[in-house]
Specification:
With about 200 residues, the protein is mostly beta strands. Helix content is about 0%, strand content about 45%. It contains no helices and 15 strands. A hairpin with a 5-residue loop joins strand 14 (about 185-190) and strand 15.
Length: about 200
């Protein structure tokens, strides 16, 4: 996929949107995994950070309840390489570590337990993110929906370049796999958590 100078924010051109049908309500679980390849000349210039994996929360009245987001921040690291947040609740968590590699494939996976009450407050709301099969975020401090009758209704990949004029950029995505608690993955990570693990 690509984005070009002159696309402005690139909405509708950069990335994609996959509807989740049926929507995932409170008590449900959702996994999405994919492989990403960034060419050697890819420019991570979206400011202040680049939208990457996004799971949208729709409220019971059909309004925007915020996104469960993974962003690429300082791609060349080693500090704040990746960031995640549940919008509206606005609590960041930051990954410090290996930079985003160019000219090689990496696997990313995101998991949500859908709940308006996070684990830390006695509920089950949780976000996990893996990078090449290693867990880098396991968040239990924020809900994944804003209210009990909210749902997760869309998976967004990138979506737009923060309404800035982007550089000429292209990259590759492969092996997009989605699973829910209706037919969950069977692999387990090194901590015993179910994940797609492709």
């Amino acid at each position: 996929m690509e984005i070009r100078e002159g696309n402005k924010g690139g909405f509708g051109k950069w990335g994609g949107i996959i509807p989740i049908k049926p929507n995932i309500p409170k008590g449900g679980e959702f996994w999405v995994s994919l492989k990403a390849f960034w060419p050697s000349n890819f420019q991570f210039t979206a400011s202040p950070w680049m939208k990457f994996l996004r799971l949208h929360n729709k409220t019971g009245t059909g309004k925007n309840g915020g996104y469960n987001d993974l962003y690429i921040h300082k791609a060349d690291g080693p500090e704040s390489v990746l960031r995640c947040i549940k919008e509206i609740h606005n609590k960041w968590n930051v990954y410090n570590g290996a930079p985003i590699p160019r000219a090689t494939w990496e696997t990313y996976e995101m998991y949500l337990f859908i709940d308006n009450v996070p684990v830390d407050d006695g509920g089950k709301g949780r976000m996990r993110i893996w990078r090449d099969g290693k867990i880098i975020f396991d968040r239990t401090d924020v809900p994944t929906i804003t209210e009990a009758n909210g749902v997760i209704d869309y998976f967004y990949l990138f979506t737009y370049w923060n309404n800035e004029n982007p550089p000429n950029n292209y990259m590759y995505i492969d092996d997009v796999i989605i699973a829910t608690d209706a037919n969950p993955p069977t692999k387990k990570d090194e901590d015993g958590n179910l994940f797609i693990g492709n």
